[in-house]
Design brief:
The complex is a heterodimer of chains A (110) and B (116).
Chain A (H helix, E strand, L loop, with lengths): L3 E3 L4 E4 L4 E7 L6 E7 L5 E6 L5 E3 L2 E6 L4 E6 L8 E8 L7 E2 L3 E6 L1
Parallel strand pairs in A: 2-11
Antiparallel strand pairs in A: 1-3, 3-8, 4-5, 4-9, 6-7, 7-8, 9-10, 9-11
Chain B lengths: L3 E4 L2 E4 L5 E7 L6 E7 L6 E7 L5 E2 L8 E7 L2 E6 L8 E8 L8 E2 L3 E5 L1
Classes of the chains: A mainly beta (110), B mainly beta (116).
Chain lengths: 110, 116
Amino acid sequence: RKEVEQDPGPFNVPEGATVAFNCTYSNSASQSFFWYRQDCRKEPKLLMSVYSSGNEDGRFTAQLNRASQYISLLIRDSKLSDSATYLCVVKGTGGFKTIFGAGTRLFVKA
Amino acid sequence: GAVVSQHPSRVICKSGTSVKIECRSLDFQATTMFWYRQFPKKSLMLMATSNEGSKATYEQGVEKDKFLINHASLTLSTLTVTSAHPEDSSFYICSASKTGGYNEQFFGPGTRLTVL
């Protein structure tokens, strides 16, 4: 089993749609969770951190379920500019390295 | 914000040559920097963790004599791909963290290496 697993997609959605991505992680000792966005041939950029209580930033909502070792990202009212690959990132402490998911590709169409 | 730069952004070299990539944190001090490699349509793979003033910690399967890392100051880490071969062609990305790596990482723009 991979340490961090994501549905690779691609997700093809129309503008204005709501889309959700899921991510599961295998190490129960994981401490920090993030969603990054990566555009084609560019570096990853932090989209948002994921907090235990769930958090929202504009059209983006992140949820964490520690019991199920599951993270989600919800995008509402999709824009063309949301088209990218979304990376789930998991970190721990005590030397546990950063693990990137393989990413979920999103295409938003007009 | 926190800015990380990489140089060069793109390099093409002949097989057998060595290539040095620089990673700089421009507006903060980074005790820890990370080097990643990414193949097309694949996830980032951590190659090594670079700590200022000490030896880098390499991930399993990454040859430390092949990928030399030097973190000589709090704002600069370098990765040297020695005796590069076509299979080393990849996108190399560095990142830096302000607080030792357990919070947000700031990524450089990446270096695309092509070995002929």
